[in-house]
Design brief:
By secondary structure, this protein is mainly α. It is built from 16 helices and no strands. The longest helix is centred in the N-terminal third of the chain and has 36 residues. It is globular and about 60 Å long. The N and C termini lie far apart (64 Å). The N terminus is likely disordered.
Length: 336
């Protein structure tokens, strides 16, 4: 028998994160050295813009992450066992349909939904059920409905397409992963170890709440910082002018806005107002695609989800979300 593989230590994971940051910065300098005409602004200006964007994304996300952690603790520690489960339908598809609407009662943005979803998993909810909630909640919640209506009203069906599209994509992903032969294999080893620590945490509710708060922050905060940094770096690497040049093409405009949604990492509570600035240039279908993709699989969200789900799982989610958003956006363009 061979020697079993040794899991990377926390220090190794930390140095890996530092290495990614160094590579991103080195990439900026290489582009500036070998393609100086690619950007009109100098590297120091772009680096400062990238840092400003990264800090903005981080500051915008922090309150929602903290709220999500608190809600996660409430679900795990303070809600009596079986209380939530008793209100859920027994059939899997019906249970996922109800979980898709849970965001209506927990109005936090996508950043706060990740800690809450981790709490549901630790409580015993299945991976497909939790994924259905996690994908639907950033869109199907009252704050997002109100802000999207304020930005677009009912023009071109953008609001309706966003709500129905988000609900449909979430249930599609939940159904697809319910067919997986090993749902627990969709989770990272580190998250499963965290579940074991939480289950065997001694002491009363107050001590368990404090311990869980520390555990969740240690898991989520590094991912949030790295995701915010990558979002800022990518935004200064992609010229907006190239995206705007193809805004009037029905198909290319959708691709452009999906690409933009992946990198800008704007909170779903306010992204409708950002998208409104493109409404006069881009097609309605491309705006819908932006409003669907951004809250679900932008860089920041993927970094947070990586604390819980494997890379292969996230790759599958990204493919389903992008293809679904493209199909919905195309349908909106044809009907608008």
């Amino acid at each position: 028998m061979g020697t079993p593989p040794v899991a990377p230590s926390r220090a190794a994971r930390t140095w890996a994160g530092v290495g990614i940051g160094v590579l991103v910065i080195a990439g900026l300098f290489l582009i500036d050295a070998f393609a100086p005409t690619f950007f009109p602004a100098s590297l120091p200006t772009r680096a400062q813009d990238g840092l400003t964007l990264a800090v903005s994304v981080l500051i915008e996300s922090l309150p929602f992450v903290a709220r999500g952690v608190v809600l996660s603790i409430v679900v795990q520690v303070w809600v009596p066992p079986g209380m939530i489960e008793r209100w859920m339908p027994r059939r899997a598809w019906a249970r996922r349909a109800v979980l898709s609407l849970l965001g209506m009662f927990i109005p936090v943005c996508e950043c706060g939904n990740v800690p809450f979803a981790r709490g549901l998993l630790m409580r015993g909810f299945t991976v497909p059920d939790t994924l259905t909630f996690l994908i639907a909640a950033p869109i199907v919640n009252p704050i997002v409905i109100i802000t999207t209506h304020q930005a677009f009203g009912f023009d071109d069906g953008i609001l309706i397409a966003r709500l129905l599209g988000g609900y449909a994509i979430a249930n599609l992903i939940g159904w697809l992963y319910s067919r997986h032969p090993d749902p627990d294999g969709l989770l990272t080893d580190r998250f499963r170890e965290t579940c074991e620590l939480v289950v065997h945490e001694p002491g009363g509710r107050g001590r368990r709440s404090l311990a869980q708060f520390v555990i969740e922050l240690r898991a989520v905060m590094p991912a949030l910082v790295i995701g915010s940094a990558l979002a800022g770096a990518v935004q200064v690497l992609i010229p907006r002018e190239a995206l705007l040049a193809i805004g009037s093409n029905p198909a290319l405009s959708i691709i452009a806005m999906i690409s933009l949604a992946l990198v800008v990492s704007i909170c779903s509570n306010v992204d409708a107002f950002f998208a409104l600035s493109f409404a006069s240039t881009f097609t309605p279908g491309s705006i819908v695609a932006f409003l669907l993709v951004g809250p679900l699989v932008d860089i920041k969200m993927l970094a947070l989800m990586r604390t819980t789900f494997t890379t292969r799982t996230l790759a599958g989610i990204v493919i389903v979300v992008i293809l679904s958003a493209f199909a919905i956006g195309t349908a909106v363009n044809l009907l608008a």
